[in-house]
Amino acid sequence: MAESKPKLHCAWFCPFAHRAWISMLTKGMDFEYIEQDPYNKSPDWLAINPRGLIPVIVHNGKSIYESHVCIEYIDESWPSEPRLLPKDPYQRAKARMWGDFVSKKLIPPYYKFLVKQSPEEQSEGREQFLANLLEFTKAMDPEGPFFLGKELGYVDIMFAPWSYRIYILKHYRNFEIPRTDEYRRYHVWAEAVKNHPCVKPVQQEESRVLADAKPYAEGNAKSELADAVRKGKTIP
Ligand SMILES: N[C@@H](CCC(=O)N[C@@H](CS)C(=O)NCC(=O)O)C(=O)O
After folding, report:
1. What is the distance between the alpha carbons of residues 222 and 201, in angstroms, rounded to a whole number?
2. Where is each GST C-terminal domain found (predicted)?
């Protein structure tokens, strides 16, 4: 068991931070939640994370940041069940490969669709997102309901915050994931994730989430991520 009570620097609106939050809840950890404004790059905040991004876990006086690293750190430092990454080396590798797919193939087109303002670029984002989501769906364990089987784990947590807030794209881009046969397994997955007892508590009121997403949809959000998407750069 790890030594001191960890602190989670988080924000109610941040999907990346939700990954760490869900992981801590899934592990049943005793932790201190700190609502952090990541946009105010004060010296105190930059001392906690020199990159100035949430989430950060502060544990035994050390900072752990980057959301996928936080999930792994939580799993390794609190090795009790449930395991977020499988014990079997191939299954672990598979979880990491699909987590990487989420980071490189799902999140970027999602934001291209939401943040870009020209219809052509939005359409490109939309098509890439849908095609890649289908590939993600086809890789899911056929029984499920979660990505690798019966338990919520790493891959689920990597994409959960975008899936339970998919209504952002409905509201601002009139987009819905098709209710067709090929996406059927996706919807089973998304429902299971949304209703999981450790995912439910992090979900925020829809009107508040939509208000927070508005500057992204209107192309004037002042964040490192929105800036990178507007400039066609890799997201931070
Ligand atoms: N790659 C980072 C991304 C985290 C991120 O972009 N967090 C946003 C909030 S959702 C942030 O801290 N933004 C501060 C800023 O843009 O200045 C991770 O996975 O942890």
Report:
1. 27
2. 88-216
Q: Distance between CA 211 and CA 146 in Å, rounded?
A: 30
Q: What is the pLDDT of residues 94-127, one digit of tens each?
A: 999 999 999 999 999 999 999 999 999 999 999 9
Judge contact between 203 and 79, C-beta under 8 A: no
How many angstroms separate the alpha carbon of residue 65 from the centre of ligand 1? 10
Ligand 1 atom at shortest distance from the alpha carbon of 15: 10
pLDDT digits (tens, 9 = 90+) for 42-66: 999 999 999 999 999 999 999 999 9
Residue 174 gets the label, from left (phi > 0), alpha (psi -120 to 50) or beta, of: left
For the chain, how long is the longest CA-to-CA vector? 52
For residue 108, what are its two tokens?
């970027």
Model confidence, pTM: 0.98
Residue 35 parent element (H or E): strand 32-35
Q: Which atom of ligand 1 is nearest to the CA of 223?
A: 16
